[in-house]
Design a protein that fits this description.
There is one protein chain. The chain is α/β, with parallel strands linked by helices. It has 2 domains: 69 residues, lambda repressor-like DNA-binding domains (434 Repressor (Amino-terminal Domain)); 156 residues, Endonuclease, Chain A (2-Layer Sandwich), CATH 3.30.870. Helices cover 50% and strands 13% of the residues. The protein contains 12 helices and 6 strands. The protein has a 6-stranded mixed sheet, sandwiched between helices. Helix 2 packs across helix 3, helix 4 packs antiparallel against helix 5 and helix 7 packs across helix 8. This is Helix-turn-helix transcriptional regulator. InterPro entries: Cro/C1-type_HTH, DUF5753, Lambda_DNA-bd_dom_sf. One of its GO terms (molecular function) is DNA binding.
């Protein structure tokens, strides 16, 4: 028996409305996903995910749908709305995409990215972000963050590329002991078959990603999505044009970052300098 079609929720967002209208006109024209795929030159699985609002429609799909259904620009108008809206549950969506990613590329201007944080470093970050949070809430956040790191030991593991602004190394989080462990973790990840760490030195000056953080996820179907984050907010970017613009900015700063071995040397130097400073001040390292 054929599986019933998945129920759609057009009231959630413009992306969901796009998918629902796609099914309405597909059914009205007596077309299956397979027959529509042949007309618009896209895989059945990709069309299914667009219809269920799991994927952002690619830019060339709306005019192809309007031509196939004779809808006089309806899908292009829906796409113009969908590509500019914030995903209704974007953090969960980001986690789902991260789990599917074959390559994860990160730029961080202020803190070590979550996938590389040690337990104590993560705990200090969560405590600082909400000093009034109950300890059990902080611990639940730490556990959730550490659970994400299982991605790095999966088989196959995604490739993880991190670019850290030098400020990440110079700002002590939790003291010399916490930072020492975090530095050791970064050195471990600096140059392995599946991970690399590069430091963007202060000497480079201004750049397009200054003041925030960026994650690029290359998925199993080779599409790329971006996730931008600032204080307390994040934006998932699945529109191809906008994600490509973030890719260009990332590639530019990567060209100015130190190679992994030189970056590891700078991290070791930062660890030694922090330890020496605390010894000089008479504090335990």
């Amino acid at each position: 028996m054929a599986r019933p079609p998945r129920q759609l929720t057009p009231d959630l967002s413009a992306r969901h409305l796009f998918g629902a209208k796609m099914r309405v006109f597909r059914d009205r024209n007596g077309m299956t996903l397979d027959s529509l795929a042949a007309v618009v030159h896209m895989s059945r699985s990709h069309l299914s995910r667009v219809e269920c609002a799991e994927y952002m429609p690619p830019a060339d799909l709306p005019p192809a749908l309007d031509a196939a259904f004779g809808t006089d620009g309806i899908f292009q108008e829906l796409y113009a709305l969908a590509r500019r809206e914030i995903h209704p549950d974007q953090y969960r969506r980001r986690m789902e995409l991260e789990a599917r990613a074959q390559v994860i590329e990160e730029y961080s201007g202020h803190t070590v990215p979550g996938l590389a944080q040690t337990e104590d470093y993560a705990r200090e970050i969560f405590r600082a972000s909400d000093p009034r949070a109950p300890e059990e809430h902080v611990e639940s956040l730490v556990s959730a963050r550490l659970s994400r790191q299982k991605l790095l030991t999966a088989n196959p593991a995604p490739e993880l590329v991190m670019i850290l602004d030098e400020a990440v190394l110079r700002r002590p989080v939790g003291g010399a002991g916490v930072m020492g462990e975090q530095f050791a973790r970064l050195i471990e990840l600096a140059d392995t078959p599946t991970t690399s760490v590069q430091v963007l030195p202060f000497s480079h000056g201004a750049h397009a990603l200054l003041g925030g953080s960026l994650t690029l996820l290359t998925l199993d179907d080779r599409t790329t999505v971006a996730y931008e984050e600032s204080i307390g907010t994040g934006t998932l970017i699945e529109d191809l044009e906008e994600a490509t613009a973030r890719r260009r900015a990332y590639d530019r700063i990567r060209g100015h970052a130190l190679p992994p071995r030189d970056s590891a040397a700078m991290i070791r130097s930062a660890r030694e300098a922090l330890s020496d400073e605390h010894h000089c001040l008479g504090r335990p390292a």
